[in-house]
Design brief:
The complex is a heterodimer of chains A (109) and B (116). Chain A is mainly beta. Chain A has no helices and 11 strands. In chain A, the strands form 2 sheets. In chain A, strands 2, 4, 5, 9, 10 and 11 form a 6-stranded mixed sheet that branches. Chain A is globular. Chain A starts with a strand and ends with a strand. Chain B is globular and about 40 Å long. Chain B starts with a strand and ends with a strand. The chains are: A mainly beta (109), B mainly beta (116).
Chain lengths: 109, 116
């Protein structure tokens, strides 16, 4: 059973700061990881995917994967109030995605 | 932009009643999913569906639940005899082939089910 843990949070940062969100996973053979964003009362949407060790950058977002430590993170640079949401880490499984419980991020103006 | 649509957006029902939640996936997608999210909790997988049969289901998806693709566009989730603990937001999602591997699931806006 693939599990993802997101134990940090809620997280509050001032506008313009870097927000750091973390996720650990239990299955050593997991090859890919995804970050979803879920605004309050809305559905999840995919924002980042990462498949190999190291960093992947997309605009203000950087995903970092460390397979040896079974750890994946999401950095949001120059955080904006519009980034306030719950961020879900997800791993693929047998015909499904398994989500972590999410980290609530609040960016204060 | 193509989107997944769900109806109803909110349904209130009495315990023991049957409920059908409906979804229209993105038209060229092949995989369909139902997830649920109890208020304040995680997004939980219920079932995935491909080629007119269930590909995978979770422990939550017991005999009270069923899914169907009655025609070429709709994908439904039926709960036969609702319980209080079925109260949740139910999300339908769809993806292309092996979208669960690429993480590219497209979610509908959800159907909120309240069981009294």
């Amino acid at each position: 059973q693939k599990e993802v843990e997101q134990n940090s949070g809620p997280l509050s940062v001032p506008e313009g700061a870097i927000a750091s969100l973390n996720c650990t996973y239990s299955d050593r053979v997991s090859q890919s990881f995804f970050w979803y964003r879920q605004y309050s009362g809305k559905s999840p949407e995919l924002i980042m995917s990462i498949y190999s060790n190291g960093d992947k950058e997309d605009g203000r977002f950087t995903a970092q994967l460390n397979k040896a430590s079974q750890y994946v993170s999401l950095l949001i640079r120059d955080s904006q109030p519009s980034d306030s949401a719950t961020y879900l880490c997800a791993v693929p499984g047998n015909y499904k995605l398994t989500f972590g419980k999410g980290t609530l991020l609040t960016v204060n103006p | 932009e193509p989107e997944v649509t769900q109806t109803p957006s909110h349904q209130v029902t009495q315990m023991g009643q049957e409920v059908i939640l409906r979804c229209v996936p993105i038209s060229n997608h092949l995989y369909f999913y139902w997830y649920r999210q109890i208020l304040g909790q995680k997004v939980e997988f219920l079932v995935s569906f491909y080629n007119n049969e269930i590909s995978e289901k979770s422990e939550i998806f017991d005999d009270q639940f069923s899914v169907e693709r009655p025609d070429g566009s709709n994908f439904t989730l039926k709960i036969r005899s609702t319980k209080l603990e079925d109260s949740a937001m139910y999300f339908c999602a769809s993806s292309g082939l092996a979208g669960y591997n690429t993480g590219e699931l497209f979610f509908g806006e959800g159907s909120r089910l309240t069981v009294l």
